[in-house]
Amino acid sequence: MPGKRVVSVSLGSSKRDSRVEIELAGIPYVMERIGTDGDFQKAISLIRELDGKVDAIGLGGIDLYLITGWKKYIIRDAKKLADAAKVTPITDGAFLKLVLEKEAIKSLQNQDIVNFKEAKVLQITAVDRFGMASALASLAKQIVFGDLMFAFGVRLPMRSLRAVNILGFLFLPIICRLPFKMLYPTGEAQEKPPKPKFVEFFQWADVIAGDFHYIKRYSPPELPGKIVITNTTTVEDVELLRQKGVKILITTTPAIQGRSFGVNVWEGAVVSFLGKPADAISEEEYLEVMRSFGWKPRVEVFP
After folding, report:
1. What is the overall mean pLDDT for the chain?
2. Of 14, 74, 116, 298, which has the most beta carbons under 10 Å away?
């Protein structure tokens, strides 16, 4: 089988760009991340330029879908980006993330790497990581979902998956129509100095899970002894967590040359491997292909 090329077009900072060559299941892959510094038009132009020339295009720094237990919602701004490609499949990682992060949490518990049954867990946001949220809710001793706190600044911790589902039913149809920059940092906003918020929840938690940019932006200067479960970390991000006193860093995708690529890139790799649309791939197929790629959660214990 010929080599594959998967490119993530990200609304994030171009300072985090990366390109690696790797062999997966005997197939040479080029995996790239190109940041557009929050410029939607630049992202659309780049997707059009890549369309038909690469095997999959990932959407980075933005979700196409937000998912609850009841429904899947499409973010309007992300759909504009996805519609720019006419030939090459677009992946945002939602389908793989739903499967992979749920499996990762179960694996961490089963292998006694993290005992969630004795842990207090803060998941920064749930609707962008519903697979992780459902697994954590079924295992954790106590849990807080911070969607309203960290995305909208509303001090309303949610302590059950049912609360997340009700929130999604009531508000996601409206939220998904908002400009995406109101929901999530893009471009230079990702490089702003930290602004700790709702610090008591970080201090309360034994495990902090979810999007790294939110963790970086809102966590306090010190996180002594904490376990962080996240993704898309660079070498600099890992060092930042080490300096904060984090005990264990877990990323749900492997590290390649020091960084973990976004799930949108890995979903693109699976889609190009199978030659099927992301939403037509079963949970079993996702896991089978990722395992053939050598997938397992990355666990880094800091001294």
Report:
1. 94
2. 116
